[in-house]
Each structure stands twice: as C-alpha cells, then as structure tokens.
Design a protein that fits this description.
The model has no long low-confidence stretch (mean pLDDT 91). The N and C termini lie far apart (26 Å). The protein has one domain. β1 and β2 form a beta hairpin. It has a 5-stranded antiparallel sheet with strand order 1-2-3-5-4. The chain contains 1 helix and 5 strands, in the order αβββββ. Helix content is 8%, strand content 40%.
Length: 78
C-alpha cells in the first residue's frame, strides 16, 4: 500500500457508512484493488483495534494498512 495514494483512491469512491468502528466506501467506478489489480466492490477502513465485521455474504478479501489502520478490499464471489 506504500505505492498507493490512499486519499486519491478514497476520493474516487462513494461513502456508504461511518461509525465508531469502521468507514466503508462503495466502488462505483471500477477502481482496481492495489493488492490483486482487479476491480473491488467495497473498501472498509477499520478505525478501532480490534474491530469485528459481520459479513452478510461470502466475499474474497484483500487486506492492507494505511496509517496503522487495517483496510479491507471486498470482492463479491461469483
């Protein structure tokens, strides 16, 4: 994630939710994931350590960190 301009990446996304534990964004413009270089569906930024995520569907995940916060790129399983 060191080569990625995270602020620019987030600026391309649509904010979905923010609460005490997480911020989430939807990828509506097919930005590619910095880990696997495939378009991702959502970006989740974990604001608290530890953070629990309750997933409502099965997803592939790519994980990184920015400013000591975990960032998770979700990919819907087909």
């Amino acid at each position: 994630m060191d080569d990625v301009d995270f602020d620019e990446l987030v600026a391309s996304l649509t904010r979905r939710e923010e609460n005490q534990a997480i911020k989430s964004y939807q990828n509506t413009v097919a930005v590619t994931c910095p880990a696997c270089e495939e378009p991702f569906d959502d970006l989740v930024v974990c604001k608290e350590n530890p953070t629990s995520l309750n997933l409502s569907r099965q997803l592939d995940l790519c994980v990184g960190s920015v400013d000591d916060q975990a960032v998770i790129f979700t990919h819907k399983k087909e």
